[in-house]
Amino acid sequence: MARISLIVKPGAIGDVASVLPAARQLYDSGSQIHWLCGKAAAQLLSCYAWVRPIVLDDDLLLGKRNAAAIREVLVTWLSLTKNRYDLCAILQYDRRYRLLTLPVRARRFIFLERGLRPLHLVSERHHSAEFMRILCGQADGFREQNIAPAQPDKLPPNPVPINGAIRVALAPGGARNSLRDDPQRRWPVQSYVALARLLLDAGVEVFLTGGPGDLWVEPHFHRLLVQSYVARWDLPELLAFYNSCHCVVTHDTGSLHLAGLVGCGVVGLFGPTAPSKALPRRAGALALWGGERLPCRPCYDGRTFADCPRNECMRSIAPERVLAAVREVMEQRDAEWRVESL
To answer: Which domains does the chain have, with CATH numbers?
Structure first.
């Protein structure tokens, strides 16, 4: 009988991308991969032929409508009773997700637990390394372990055919999920506008990208000849487009992790969060970490951010420095990933 591993990770796109390298190692070791995920993550996982998504409505599950949440749990239980699993890995701290696996028959269970080092994500380490440690049984200090992003093997055609011009995509929005908005992570939209102007002056094609909740960014660029595809594509189409770009510029949000999965250059902008745990660990990825002289950096503790009205760490990243980073990444696409503090 074939081994099957069940991964319970409905979370944000970045969290799902961080688990993919460890899931791929499980698959390469001979295990089928079933993945209990939310609707947005299911779009991403559909780009991987070796993953079978089991989709739940995480908005209903975590919402305030108890009857709807109970129905969603019952439907999920029915889906999970169809197989016997070798491993059930609940990669969430929220104990409500354990309810989803009550009827699961598995030889072994793994779950995240705060306060228990073997089952706790170590702060400031790259999340891909931590999930590899927890999911695949790697010890602390392992070396030469491949935690590079797992590239998708099923992409649709590029929605904007290549025309020979240098293209750079900006993702000024994001930094929110179904539970909360984290504006502290965003580089100021005015800084994105200034960067777009610099790129256009240099003869670069500039594109705006983002999801349905990011339409608010478009009016800020209305006087510039940028091409906006915000809320126009699903995740597979966005991945296919990013794969055609010379560089993607964004902050610590889902677009950063999506760009890290494909072949474009990546410039990630950080302040309250540390690039050590989020910048894609591959060649052609560069992080600019603002606020080096600020004693409060980073302020994110894994749950909340500091109450900071100015967001000085992100404001300190100058558009001119980002432009230089874009040029550097495009000229040295094979350079190792790295972090520069500002």
So the answer is: 3-136 (3.40.50.2000), 167-341 (3.40.50.2000)
